[in-house]
Structures are given as C-alpha cells and as structure tokens.
Amino acid sequence: MNPAEKSLIVQRDSTLLLDVHSASYDEARAAISPFAELEKSPEHMHTYRISPLSLWNAASAGLDAPAITAALAGHSRYPVPENVAANIREILSRYGKIRLVSAGGKDGMDMLKLEINDPALAAEVRANRKLAKYLRFTEDAILLALTDRGTIKQELIRIGYPVQDEAPLCGGEPLPFSFRESTAAGRAFSIRDYQREAASALVADKRPGTGFGVVVLPCGAGKTIVGMAAMELLKTNTLILTTNIAAVHQWMDELLDKTTLPPDTIGEYSGEAKIIRPVTVATYQILVWRPAKEAVFPHFRLFRERGWGLIIYDEVHLLPAPMFRVTAEIQGVRRLGLTATLVREDGREEDVFSLVGPKRYDVPWKELEAKGWIAQATCVEIRLDLPEALKIPYAVADKRGKFRIACENPRKLAVVKEILENHPEDPTLIIGQYLDQLEEIAKDLAAPLITGKTPNAEREKIYGDFKAGRVRVIVVSKVANFAIDLPDASVAVQVSGSFGSRQEEAQRLGRILRPKQRNSWFYSILSRYTTEETFGENRQKFLTEQGYQYRVEVWEGT
Known about the structure:
This protein has about 550 residues and is an alpha/beta fold.
C-alpha cells in the first residue's frame, strides 16, 4: 500500500491519530485497539494513546513488543518514531518479570510464590519495606499468603511491575444451569455474538492466568447478559455486586427470565433482605456499611459464606474504595468487572487492573450503534441566560454557590416544557442533581419523581409504569445514573449534573441507548456565562470524543 494511503499517524508522545476516512481505517483500528486506548473519536480523526496500562493489558492477552511495533509500522503513514518503539519495548519488558505461582509442596495449600527472573529486581523486592511485611523470604524463594495476593499485586504495579498472576483459582461449588431458548414470557432469546465473545474472553480455557478481568461495553449493549454468559460457562456459585436495590432486582429478574435457574437458587443481600443462595445479588452499599468509622465492615463476611466460583462486579468503575480491600483478599476466585467506561475520577484504574483483572474485551460505542445493537443518539446542549434577579446573587456567591444557582436556573423549566412539546410521543427522563429543582419540575409537569428517598416498592412501580407506557415522563435524581434498565426511554433531559463528571455523562446517555424503533435524544440545559457552562465543556468533550453528534443551541425564550 502507498504510505500516503495508510490511515495511522504515530506521534512521539505515544498518541496515535487514525484517519476515519481512509480505506484502511477498519483494519488499522482492529490492529491497534488491543494495545492502545481510545481517547477521542470525533468525526474525522480518532486519537488513541499507548500507556503502560494499555500495554500491560495487551501483554496479558499475549501480545509482545515485536507484534505491537509491527502493527504500528504496517499501518503508519510515516516511520514509527524510535522513542515510541523503545518505550514499548521497555514497558513490556517489565511484564512477566514477576510471576505469581503456587508455592507447591507442603506450603502449596496456603502459600504462593513470586518468581522473579531478574536478580536486581529480586533484590529490589526484598528491600522494599512496604512489601516486606507481606512476604516471607527463604534462601531461594519469596513466599506470600493467599490472602495477601492482591495487596502484593497492588504494591508491585505501583512501582511499575505488573504481576503475571498464574496462581490457581478455585472452582467454587458447582451450579448447573443453561440459557432458555425463549424467555419466561415466551419471547425469542439468543445471545449476541459479541456478548458470547466477551464471556469467552474472560473464561478462556480455564487455565492459570485466565478467569479474571474487565469487559467494557456501552450502556445498553447488554453487559448483564455477558455476566450471565460467564456464569453459564463456569456453572458455579456466583456472587453479583451492583450499585443499588433496583439493579439487584433487575439482575434477579433477568436470571429468572433467561436462564433455567429456579427461584430458590437466587438470593438478595441488601438493606431489605439478607438471603444467601448459590447465586446471590448484593449492593455495594450494604457491603461497605459499618456502624462507626473505625469499626470493621460486618457484611464483608458475605465473601466467605459460600464456595463462590465467580464474583461479578457490575459498574466496576464505581467500585467503592473499601471494596478494594476485600477484593485484594479474595484473589483465588474468578472475577468479572462490567463497565461502560474504565475512567475512574479517583485515578485508581491500576487497582482495577491488579485486583479485578486486565481488560479482556471491549467494543466502541459507535461500532455497536452502526450494527443496530444500540440506538443512534443526538446530543444537544441548550444554553440560556440567568434571570436578572439571580445575576447579582450569582456574582457574589462562592464557587459551590455559583454552580448551584446556575444549575437551578428557574428558566430551565420552560425549556423542559418546550422539549416535551417537540417529543410528544417519546418516553422521556428528566434527570438532575438538586432535589428542590426536581420537586418543582415534577410538580409542574404532574410527573412522578424518583430520588434516593423514594421507597423501593414505589420506585419499582414507577419504573414499571414507565416501561408499560402508562407514564411517559418521569423525573429522576442521580439514583438513575447507574444500572437502571429503562429500555423504552428515547429522550433524556439533563437539568443539572455533578461538576462535569465523565462517568455521569456516560451513564446518563446510556439510559437512552437501548435499541428501539426511534432514535434517541440527549439534551443538556446549561446557564450561559456561568461555571455550569465551564463544567459542561468537560461533558461535551466526552460525548464528542465518543463520536456522538453534539450541537449547541441558545434558547431565546423568556
């Protein structure tokens, strides 16, 4: 191929530019996706970045430096900068220098061993004070307890050496079941190819080094089905952790609807019920609850109540910090993280890599949209002025006060009404941050309101009415950001948010991406010339980077 016709440009800062309009775009994207993270995907030129974490994810999937540099050279329009090739070799040389294996012998039942093929690195590990308290040194071995497996992996990746974990995983208590050919309601059901591929990428051949990792799929792409497919491949007792009680019930409903698991094999562990069964679905909130700040976490015992063979972390990018502690202790169990984005606002992506596992599978949002598996979405930002009466209070407020005044701009209600008039038949979610604002909107529209204070029974009734078409508009607080299945929603109106969180934008957009007959619309209403507009730029950047059309309009109403 003529170099000028190639689609990839490799830059010295390890970023990769990919020309969407090149004939070789698809081939080049497939070649670089295993070792580079997509950062931006607007209309014409996509940006990827090669990072230590992306390379270690690639190494865990079997790629080496020669294969990666060959892929770059084969698709690059210009010669690959030598410093980029050298960095790839250096970073990947660290992967596999430390292997974690069974200690064997009499200690093999409760001890593991670090195998280090570099004498200088072995000396560095022996001299590290943070590691020393977890390790036991003999003349020819470095040993550690099973319960310290995750902690050691965390500490080693922090000094730049990811552990190649090849220690055995427990099988868990068996639980035979299968998928139904049709749902309990009689609808035809089959697993999509990419869902089966994602589950298979995790389970692989069940040999050491497999059975733990993260699957990244857009909201609406059926991550729950991927989790169930992994369960079906392993056929073992499973603990499922998710974000809230509504998500718990949705997981339970899906399992009963699409698998042969009988009801008495599925239990709920939450603030409302604590029933432990071969498949148990729990909330993160109950697990990280404790009676006092310095007290132990009493519900962590759930992890040891049964012979779990698989733990599923739903919305793994939201894994609460205390959960890293217990996750570090249970490294002998197969682990699956499900998420639409690996971005963590606290920057702990490396901990997800170490403790849950490397990224095993992902598919770009726009690729699934093009195939019809998720809905096409148009994103519109509507900007409007503050009322004159609020301009001086806004000017003299502190940073947090300015943001709240801007978010609660009372003129937004008129914009909401106008949007509803333009979408008279579309099931619509109105989403916001501040309860006073949401209560006023719900009252004016005579629409049901769901907040964190809404009893679960009432919340699920409202969701049920919405799904059945008895209610067309519902107003929801940030409780609707996560793991809520509202398949018919096609319009979302965001009236306030959380300081431009990328996670939040991904989740809120995901509420309207389930495939349906009509296209979807995502509106954000912002106050002009305020801090809300500034924070909105971060959210706008995220959506355009994902490849969504995004237009800005100024509302001139009164």
